[in-house]
Amino acid sequence: MEYTKDQKMAMSKVLLDIVSVDEHIDARETMYFENVKELLDLTTQDHYDILHLNTLKCLSIIKLMTIEQKTEFATMMRKMIIADGYIDPNEATSFYDICEFIHINGIGLTME
Q: What is residue 78's three-state secondary structure?
């Protein structure tokens, strides 16, 4: 799927925020994020820049994406959350809050 640079950066920032909610970043979560960076064609400099982005602004960018883009992003969030083999309750809350904010429904959070 095609994304603008701003969309790619915004999605990556939110993914990093979600994985940080439980205050423990597992190696499997890091590996998944590296795969996302490769998929989105983001550089090491982009990764550094992402750390300084405003989360609310990023969520607003994501909110304006197409339904297909938001659905794919919700799948990325789900995969990031389950990467460590456990659904942390705080990560789950973040997932559902974000889905509500960006107006994406029907995406569940399961280990499958």
A: helix
What's the CA gap between 34 and 109, in Å, rounded?
Answer: 21
Q: What is the pLDDT of residues 52-91, one digit of tens each?
A: 999 999 999 999 999 999 999 999 999 989 888 888 899 9
Q: Taking the model in full, what pTM does it have?
A: 0.90
- The token pair at 22 is 């439980």
Q: Encode pLDDT of 18-34 as tens digits.
A: 888 877 778 888 899 89
**Dihedral of the CA atoms 42, 25, 102, 89 (nearest 10)?**
170
Q: Which residues of 86-96 are buried (b: 16+ CB within 10 A; e: fewer)?
A: eebeebeebbe
Please say whether the beta carbons of 75 and 105 come within 8 A: no
Tell me how far the alpha carbon of residue 7 is from its chain's centroid. 11
Listed in sequence order, the DSSP H helices in 40-88 are 44-50, 55-63, 67-82
First and final C-alpha spacing in the chain: 22
Residue labelled with tokens 């889905």 = 99
